[in-house]
Design a protein that fits this description.
- There is one protein chain.
- This protein has 8 helices and 16 strands.
- By secondary structure, it is α/β, with parallel strands linked by helices.
- It has a single domain, classed as Purple Acid Phosphatase, chain A, domain 2.
- The strands form 4 sheets. The protein has a 6-stranded mixed beta sheet. A 6-stranded mixed beta sheet has the order 5-6-9-10-12-11, with helices on one face. A two-stranded antiparallel ribbon has the order 7-8.
- A hairpin with a 4-residue loop joins strand 13 (232-233) and strand 14.
- The longest helix is centred in the middle third of the chain and has 14 residues, at 148-161.
- The radius of gyration is 19 Å and the shape is globular.
- The chain starts with a strand and ends with a helix.
- The structure holds fe (ii) ion.
- Fe (ii) ion (FE2) binds next to loops.
């Protein structure tokens, strides 16, 4: 058996020309992808590039075309799962190309990589058993993860039936993130119920928070990748340049992972204001944050 090398991109938030980013402030994500591409392609060869959601900023077909064209330039095969910014129908119809897939499970060496959908619990049955996005776009966009019974059952079944020695789960929303703004009690409870039974799961790789991180959840290591849209360091209280993660999956079930940042003068590590830091930590609500910003603007 051999060591499996994977690069993880997350939160690429591709935009079509002249479109504005959802929520305002963002890096030019095409420029960020080009910088990440140059960094990644200069590294050793990868067996796979995993992309963990928020592929398109508004979930539009034109944005998936941009994303798929960019991903197809990578030397390694690419496989992706959706995030809360993605829209199920457009994602499903617009992404796949010969080297860019939306597979749910990929075996490499003695590892099984599962690509979970942490938006499944907010989706609705269309009456024929198929899940579709909720009518209100914001119901999916503003959710901080929900597996629902279907996705949890699928994870149980896949872990129980795989012939691989080790399982790693790629998913947009990491369970119990350390940044409070992205935390959700119900989602955390779903994972707490599940994870103890998935005894062959050696780790989880997510995104969503735009805060690169590594922590342990119920004795399982959780790795959070940098984003391409904007990126934060809550300890240093600064912005971060765009980046990605690299992983080595050893045949004994151990994982080593490193955050790779495209340190570049185009993305300086600007200090974060106190209010932004408090917002990201979950100490302020969006309403309280907006009030502070409005007060500051009125004073200036
Ligand atoms: Fe995102």
């Amino acid at each position: 058996m051999r060591t499996v090398r994977v690069a993880q991109l997350s939160d690429t938030h591709f935009l079509e020309a002249d479109a504005s980013p959802e929520g305002g402030f963002a890096y030019d994500t095409s420029e960020a992808f080009d910088a990440v591409y140059a960094h990644l392609e200069a590294d050793e060869a990868f067996d796979l590039v995993a992309v963990t959601g928020d592929i398109a900023d508004h979930g539009r077909v034109a944005q998936y075309r941009q994303a798929a064209a960019a991903f197809a330039t990578l030397s390694a095969p690419v496989n992706i799962c959706p995030g809360n910014h993605d829209q199920h129908a457009a994602f499903t119809a617009s992404v796949a190309r010969p080297t860019v897939g939306t597979s749910r499970a990929i075996d490499l060496g003695n590892w099984c990589f599962l690509f979970a959908d942490s938006n499944t619990g907010v989706m609705v049955d269309d009456g024929s058993g198929h899940l579709i996005d909720p009518e209100n776009y914001d119901d999916r966009l503003h959710a901080n993860g929900s597996l629902g019974q279907r996705e949890a059952s699928w994870l149980r079944e896949m872990c129980a039936t795989t012939t691989a020695d080790h399982v790693f789960i790629w998913v947009h929303h990491p369970p119990a993130p350390t940044s409070g703004l992205s935390a959700d009690e119900a989602y955390e409870a779903e994972w707490r119920t599940l994870i103890g039974d998935l005894t062959n799961v050696r780790g989880i790789g997510g995104g969503h928070t735009h805060i690169p991180d590594q922590y342990t959840f119920e004795n399982v290591p959780v790795f959070v990748a940098p984003a391409l849209k904007n990126n934060f360091d809550l300890d240093a209280q600064t912005m971060l340049p765009p980046g990605y993660r690299t992983y080595e999956f050893a045949d004994d079930g151990t994982i080593s992972s490193t955050v790779q940042l495209t340190d570049d003068p185009r993305w300086p590590r600007h200090p974060l204001g106190r209010a932004v830091t408090s917002l990201l930590r979950g100490e302020l609500t969006w309403a309280e944050f907006d009030e502070i910003v409005a007060r500051k603007q009125a004073r200036s």
